[in-house]
Amino acid sequence: MAMDWDAMLEYKTVKIVVIRDRRLGIIHYAVMLLILIYVVVYTIVFEGGYLKTEPPFGSARATLRQPDTLTSETVLPYCLQNSPTSTLSDGSSSPNAQCIFLAGSDIEYPSGIRGYNFGTTRTKDTVYQVDPNCNILPTNSTCLNQNNANTTRTYVADIERYTLFLEHSVYGAQTQVIRQNTQCVGYLLKNGKKIKELPVPREADIFTVQELMDAADVPSLEKKSTLQPVANSLRYDGALFVVVIDYTNSVANAGKYSYTYQIVYIPGLDVVAMEPSVAISANQRYQRTRHGISFVYLITGKIGKFDFATLLQTIISGAVLTNVSGVIVDILLTHVLPQRDTYRPRKYDEGVDSDEQPNPLYKNKDEESK
User: Fold this and answer.
1) What are 58's strand-pairing partners?
2) pLDDT value at position 362?
3) Dist. CA 164–CA 143, nearest whole Å
4) What DSSP letter does each residue of 191-221 carry, written as one string?
5) pLDDT-flagged residues of the chain (< 50)
6) Neighbours of 333 (CB within 10 A)
7) How far is CA 53 from CA 41, 186, 242, 253, 254, in A?
C-alpha cells in the first residue's frame, strides 16, 4: 500500500467565513466588550497593571515614652497598694504585686533594637549568696550555685498609657523607591477596618500601648493568658504582638504611597527577658528577670512605579483574551444553534487533494461563461 504523503504532510490554514446571524454577532461583541472592560478598568486601572511592583525591604524601630502624668498606684486594680487581689477577664482572682514606676527607657529592654521592642510589665528581682572566694571568672562549679535566694516581684504601673514612638522606612531594589513612614499616609486597622488615620506631615507614628492592644482585640492586660500548665494574667506572663506594616501604591497616583498597621496577638507564650547578673557585694549577686509586652514589626506589601514594559505586557495579555470570544461563538454555531448543521460545513472543509482538484488560478471556458 502506497504511503499518502499529502495526507501525512497536510497543511491547515485559516478560513474566514462571514455568517450573517445577529445572535452570534451580539454574543461576539458583548464578550469583546467585557474583555475590554476587564483589561482597562480592572487590570490596568483597579489593579495598577501599569506599575512595576516588588515586595519592599524595610526596617522599623520603636521607643517607649512614659506619659506626662501617671495614674496613682492606689487606684490601679493590680497594685498591692490598692488591694491584695484583682479580678481577671474570666472572673478568677489573681494576687496583686507591689507597683513601681519606671521611665520609658527603663521599661524597654533592650533599648534601641530595630525590628522589635519589649516593654516590661512585671519584674522579678533576685539577690542570692555566692562563695566569696569566687571571682569574676569562676573556676569552680560551686560558684554558680544560687544559695539563699531572696526574690521580689513587682508590676510596672500604668504601662498601658505609655506611648510608642514608631519610625520605619522601605526600599525597592528594582524600582529604586525609598519612602519613610512620615512621607506616607498611615492607617491603624482593627479587624480589617480603619480606626485611625495618620496624616502627612507628622513627626512620627505615635500610639499608646492600649491603642495597639485594642487593635488586636486585647482590651486589658488582665486578660487571662493561655500559657500552660499555669495561666496567669497577660500582665504577669507577658504578651507577644506582631505588627504587620503593609505598604502599597495609590492606583490613581503612582507616586502616592500609604501603609496600614495590622496588630496580631500571639497567645500561649511566656514573654520574658533576663538581664545578666551583677555583683552587689563580695558574696551577693543580683539578677532581674522581666516579663512584658513584646512588639515584633514585619514590613510587607508591594511598592512600584510606572513602567511602559509592564503596561505593554498587560495590554498584550488582554489582547490574547479576545480569542476567547471567537472560541465561544464557534462552539455556539457548530454545536448549539439550530442551524449548526448548516453552519458547520461552512466553518470546516473536509480538505482539498492537490492531485485531484484543479488549480483554482486557472478557469476553463465553461466556468468563465457562468
Assistant:
1) 170
2) 42
3) 41
4) TTEEEEEEPSS-S-EEEEHHHHHHHTT---T
5) 359-365, 367-370
6) 22
7) 19, 20, 25, 14, 11
